[in-house]
């Protein structure tokens, strides 16, 4: 979609380094997803916005708005470096990180690809994915590194076949690297995307992991690569299946109310949003790219018993195992 943030010459000169390999994976993922979405929509193209961060690094934001199928689809790559703010460092310490600063400074490099896709049709689910790499240089010159990420689905209405297809595709990607990974990261996803003040999950989950630094850097990279390659096959078939489904004004209203829940989670709980807002020089437009164009909050709204709306709420309150 655009030249990489670090420049092709620099990436080629250090092609053996993990930072270069990760950045190229992020760029490839962005291009692959954007091509698939644009081809499917047909009516709108991605705007490509390259930006620089004064403190170090930059990013490429690709956003499609008001298409035939997608109301808003954003796929953002960021590669930033500099010194962690105290607020960001404190957030990491709260997760058990031991960070040794030098003169109060902590050099870091963070890179990731992040996307949220909001379709127009309430029978097409929203998808979110994020894969990232973090590296910190401590006062003694040693480096800490870890990967994080995941892919999760947020349908307005429950479709059992879609849920099974989505989870099965992610499970197959995980199983290449160990049978224990999918159940572990599926459970982590259910627990992470939990809107505590509502008592419900944001969606029907997927996989999520963070602070992943074992068994080895190479093995974790290969795992993350498999997860990134599963994004298009886990989602695009669902979009094709439902993008021309008919829907009522009442179903559109329910989609708007569910989007309100999506906004609540992202602004109140999401770790990536919090880190971005706490990092000096962050690009706010890219951080808040995940928010839908439209959403709705109604006072004391409650769906009728035994309705399709109540059906999805039951799953959000009590997560299911979709594949075994």
TrEMBL record:
GO terms for molecular function: coproporphyrinogen oxidase activity. It comes from the Eukaryota. The keyword Disulfide bond does not apply. SUPFAM superfamilies: Coproporphyrinogen III oxidase (SSF102886). GO terms for biological process: protoporphyrinogen IX biosynthetic process. NCBIfam families: PRK05330.1. Homodimer. This is Oxygen-dependent coproporphyrinogen-III oxidase, mitochondrial. The lineage of its organism: Eukaryota, Metazoa, Chordata, Craniata, Vertebrata.
């Amino acid at each position: 979609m655009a030249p990489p943030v670090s420049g092709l010459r620099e990436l080629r000169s250090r092609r053996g380094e993990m930072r270069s390999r990760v950045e190229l994976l992020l760029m490839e993922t962005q291009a692959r997803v954007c091509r698939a979405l644009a081809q499917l929509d047909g009516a709108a193209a991605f705007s490509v916005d390259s930006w620089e961060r004064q403190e170090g690094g930059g990013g490429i934001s690709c956003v499609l708005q008001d298409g035939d199928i997608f109301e808003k689809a954003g796929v953002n790559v960021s590669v930033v470096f500099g010194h962690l703010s105290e607020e960001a460092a404190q957030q990491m310490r709260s997760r058990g990180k031991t960070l040794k600063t030098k003169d109060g400074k902590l050099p870091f490099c963070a890179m990731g690809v992040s996307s949220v896709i909001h379709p127009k049709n309430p029978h097409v689910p929203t998808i979110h994915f994020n894969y990232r790499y973090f590296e910190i240089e401590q006062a003694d010159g040693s480096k800490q590194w870890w990967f994080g990420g995941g892919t999760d689905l947020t349908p307005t209405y429950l479709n059992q076949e879609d849920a099974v297809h989505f989870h099965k595709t992610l499970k197959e990607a995980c199983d290449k690297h160990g049978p224990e990974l999918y159940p572990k990261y599926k459970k982590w996803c259910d627990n992470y995307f939990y809107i505590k003040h509502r008592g419900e999950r944001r969606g029907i989950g997927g996989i999520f992991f963070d602070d992943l630094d074992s068994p080895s850097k190479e093995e974790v990279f290969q795992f993350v690569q498999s997860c990134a390659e599963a994004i298009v096959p886990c989602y695009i078939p669902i979009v094709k299946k439902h993008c021309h489904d008919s829907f009522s004004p009442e179903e559109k209203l329910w989609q708007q109310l569910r989007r309100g829940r999506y906004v609540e989670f992202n602004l109140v709980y999401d770790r990536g949003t919090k880190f971005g807002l706490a990092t000096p020089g962050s690009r706010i437009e890219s951080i808040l790219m995940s928010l839908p164009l439209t959403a709705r909050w109604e006072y004391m709204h409650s769906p009728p018993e035994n309705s399709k709306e109540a059906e999805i709420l039951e799953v959000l309150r009590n997560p299911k195992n979709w594949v075994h």
